[in-house]
Amino acid sequence: ADQMYKQGLYNKNIIRALRSKDRIREILKKETGKDTDMNWSPFHPLCQQCGRMSDTKIISFNEENEEVHYQCQCEDSRWIPLAGGGKLTWRVDWPARWQILGVQVEPFGKDHASRGGSYDTGVKIAREIFEYEPPYPVVYEWISLRGAGDMSSSKGNVLSIREMLDVLPAEVLKYSIIKAKPNKSIVFDPGLPMVTLLDEFDDKSSTSRNQRAAELASLSSSRPVGVPFRHVVMLVQLTRGHIEEMIQILNRTGYKDIDVEALKRRCEFAASWLEKFGPEDLKFEIQVSLPDKAKMLSDAQKNALHMLGNRLTPNMDPHEIHELIYAVKDECGLTPSDLFKAIYQSILGKDKGPRAGFFLASMDLKFMQKRFLEV
Question: DSSP labels for 52-107?
Answer without folding.
Answer: -STTEEEEEEETTTTEEEEEETTS-EEEEESTTSEEE-HHHHHHHHHHHHT--EEE
